[in-house]
Amino acid sequence: MSKKKNVRDTALQLLETIEKNQAYSNLLLNSAIDKNEINPIDVGLLTELVYGTLQRKMTIDFYLKPFIEKNKKLQSWVINLLRMTVYQMVYLDKIPERAAIFEAVEIAKRRGHKGIASLVNGVLRSIQRNGLPSLDSITDPAERISIDTSHPMWLVRRWVNQFGEEKTREMCEVNLTAPLQTGRVNLTRISRDECLELLEEEGFEVELSPILPEAIKCLRGNLASSKAFKYGLLTIQDESSMLVAHALGIKGEEVILDACAAPGGKTTHIAEKLGNSGKVISLDLHEHKVKLISENAERLGLENIAAQKMDSRQAADQFKKESIDRVLLDAPAQDLG
Ligand SMILES: C[S@@+](CC[C@H](N)C(=O)[O-])C[C@H]1O[C@@H](n2cnc3c(N)ncnc32)[C@H](O)[C@@H]1O
């Protein structure tokens, strides 16, 4: 039997890859779990360490700042190791602080040299000794909400203008709670009731969503490991994301341009709603991401998706002659210039 990797080493490696390649965290995490790299009993902890550290990054960086200020040139893996350890110290009750610090120092010894291990030890011990800096020192209320809930400043400012401080804080806090996993049944291949039955036979606890006719909620189990997922009967997607294809108001055999499409959640939904007819032209800037769209289309047995690498800012010229019925543009404004 192959030797399993240490769960914190794996979490750190994933955090590094996500930061450097801007890879999708869920795909990386699922692939590490699928490759059976870590002990099955550590899957929960791995998920918690990766998602938790990413989710609280801005708050953790605020906590770390005074302790690492004088070490200007820290390598990125050291910063991620410190982040992941502070995450455990602040947010996880079940892991004693000394255990989290011990593990971090061991990783630093394995990956770096003695000097780095003692720096990591020093930073973490002084956090333990001196306590965390107070968020009350941030005087601007929007900035305080942004740091406290790890939401981008531009978004918090926009929400504060629209909804006021109190509502914005509530919205940000709700955003930090773990949602139930939801799945979208591929109605071109199976009915929702049949899919539910299959999942229940496999031991999943699932129920129909009251919001959308193709959605199911998963109360126990990870749908990504189900046979229904593997055989293309199901996609994992939030109900809010599913609403987009409904909002498009697709009628019959249309041609739809999904201008920023990877990994293809909405593209494949639109293709399903077209009943595998019409066409979805799915663009993305990056070749490796276009591949994800094609893989998803193949898994779901959808033949009406044309995925290609293209900057959507050139799409108007490229598709002049094609009659396009609707366009979906799903990317942050700053990506589109
Ligand atoms: C939020 S994701 C889209 C998610 C997708 N709609 C889904 O439901 O799965 C944004 C995508 O837009 C792509 N993107 C950003 N700027 C782009 C551009 N100018 N042209 C094409 N794709 C772009 C990014 O590479 C990224 O994969």
TrEMBL record:
Main location: cytoplasm
Location of this chain's protein in the cell: Cytoplasm
Family indicated by similarity: Belongs to the class I-like SAM-binding methyltransferase superfamily. RsmB/NOP family.
EC number from the UniProt entry: 2.1.1.176
Residue span, SAM-dependent MTase RsmB/NOP-type domain: 171-337
GO terms classed as biological process: regulation of DNA-templated transcription
Function summary: Specifically methylates the cytosine at position 967 (m5C967) of 16S rRNA.
Gene3D superfamilies for this protein: NusB-like, Sun protein, domain 3, Vaccinia Virus protein VP39
Protein name: 16S rRNA (cytosine(967)-C(5))-methyltransferase
Pfam families cross-referenced by the UniProt entry: Methyltr_RsmB-F, NusB, RsmF-B_ferredox
Cellular component annotations (GO), alphabetically ordered: cytoplasm
Entry binding sites for S-adenosyl-L-methionine: C260, A261, A262, P263, G264, G265, K266, D284, D311, D330
Domain of life: Bacteria
GO terms for MF: RNA binding; rRNA methyltransferase activity
UniProt cross-references to PANTHER family, sorted A to Z: NOP2 YEAST -RELATED NOL1/NOP2/FMU SUN DOMAIN-CONTAINING (PTHR22807), RIBOSOMAL RNA SMALL SUBUNIT METHYLTRANSFERASE B-RELATED (PTHR22807:SF53)
Keywords for the protein's UniProt record, in alphabetical order: Cytoplasm, Methyltransferase, RNA-binding, rRNA processing, S-adenosyl-L-methionine, Transferase
Catalysed reactions, semicolon-separated: cytidine(967) in 16S rRNA + S-adenosyl-L-methionine = 5-methylcytidine(967) in 16S rRNA + S-adenosyl-L-homocysteine + H(+)
First-level EC class: transferase
